[in-house]
């Protein structure tokens, strides 16, 4: 059975005290009621300066896991202002988001660079959450599937079978991020099923059946249950709603 995952991407938000308070509130709300067998794995991804402090607050052996929003492609060196995968692992990170649409757009990260980051993250023992997704222009041109297939092929499918088994994929319809728009459950399912089909072609049917594919396009407490009910949607990469503990926990409970 595939791992169900809800990951909160806090982006460049909050102050350190606010981040610690949000962590406490999420933890408390999750502890209020029994999780049940459908409890997904939960990842919180704070900004770099907050990682160690947030990580120390996560209950050991609990449902919450620590992730980062990015890492550099080199393990160390003269790269002022950057953060390496081994650094992230050393403060307790288990996951790292790579290839987020905002990194691709604002920082010009391409699939060749992301391929290097994947290798570095995996070597440090991190599990990458690798993002793919199309713009509104690409969707309206009816080029969604060719575009995503290329992102997968160029950025991800160079990994070995063993490496790929450590990866989580996130589908981000860029036109639905921060816009209030959301792909319909049918649209999300269609693309998730396509991604799974591409994995089967590049690797094996077992790999395709095992990989967790998350939806990352403005999922919220109101639409999460329907989205997560689709057969190929294994959870969500949550942006704005992850900054409000009641909303984030409601999304987690949608399973």
From TrEMBL:
Q: Does the keyword Cytoplasm apply?
A: yes
Q: Keywords in UniProt for this one?
A: Cytoplasm, Gluconeogenesis, Glycolysis, Isomerase
Q: Organism, per UniProt?
A: Hymenobacter caeli
Function statement: Involved in the gluconeogenesis. Catalyzes stereospecifically the conversion of dihydroxyacetone phosphate (DHAP) to D-glyceraldehyde-3-phosphate (G3P).
**What's the encoding gene here?**
tpiA
Which residues bind substrate per the record? Answer: 9-11, 178, 218, 239-240
Full protein name? Triosephosphate isomerase
PROSITE patterns of this UniProt entry?
TIM_1, TIM_2
Its EC top class is isomerase
UniProt pathway: Carbohydrate biosynthesis; gluconeogenesis; Carbohydrate degradation; glycolysis; D-glyceraldehyde 3-phosphate from glycerone phosphate: step 1/1
> What is the predominant subcellular site recorded for this chain?
cytoplasm
CDD domains, sorted: TIM
Annotated GO MF terms: triose-phosphate isomerase activity
Assembly information from the UniProt record: Homodimer.
Active site (record annotation)? 100 (electrophile), 172 (proton acceptor)
The EC number(s) this enzyme carries: 5.3.1.1
Report the family membership.
Belongs to the triosephosphate isomerase family.
What does it catalyze? D-glyceraldehyde 3-phosphate = dihydroxyacetone phosphate
Query: Which InterPro entries does the record cross-reference, listed alphabetically?
Result: Aldolase_TIM, TIM_sf, TrioseP_Isoase_bac/euk, Triosephosphate_isomerase, Triosephosphate_isomerase_AS
Transmembrane residue ranges:
none
Localization per Swiss-Prot or TrEMBL? Cytoplasm
User: What single Pfam family name could you report for this chain, choosing any that match?
Assistant: TIM
């Amino acid at each position: 059975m595939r791992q169900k995952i809800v990951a909160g991407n806090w982006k460049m938000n909050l102050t350190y005290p606010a981040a610690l308070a949000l962590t406490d509130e999420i933890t408390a709300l999750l502890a209020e009621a029994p999780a049940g067998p459908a409890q997904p794995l939960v990842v919180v991804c704070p900004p770099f300066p907050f990682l160690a402090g947030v990580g120390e607050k996560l209950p050991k052996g609990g449902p919450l896991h620590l992730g980062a929003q990015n890492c550099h492609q080199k393990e160390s060196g003269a790269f002022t202002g950057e953060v390496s995968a081994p650094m992230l692992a050393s403060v307790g990170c288990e996951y790292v988001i790579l290839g987020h649409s905002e990194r691709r757009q604002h920082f010009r990260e391409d699939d060749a660079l992301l391929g290097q980051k994947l290798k570095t993250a995996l070597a440090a023992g991190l599990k990458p959450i690798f993002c793919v997704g199309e713009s509104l222009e690409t969707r309206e041109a009816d080029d969604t599937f060719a575009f995503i297939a290329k992102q997968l092929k160029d950025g991800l499918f160079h990994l070995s079978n063993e490496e790929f088994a450590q990866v989580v994929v996130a589908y981000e319809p860029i036109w639905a991020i921060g816009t209030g728009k959301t792909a319909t459950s049918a649209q999300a399912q269609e693309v998730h099923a396509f991604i799974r089909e591409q994995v089967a072609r590049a690797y094996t049917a077992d790999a395709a059946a095992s990989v967790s594919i998350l939806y990352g396009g403005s999922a919220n407490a109101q639409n999460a249950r329907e989205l997560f009910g689709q057969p190929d949607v294994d959870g969500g990469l949550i942006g704005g709603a992850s900054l409000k503990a009641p909303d984030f926990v409601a999304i987690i409970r949608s399973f």
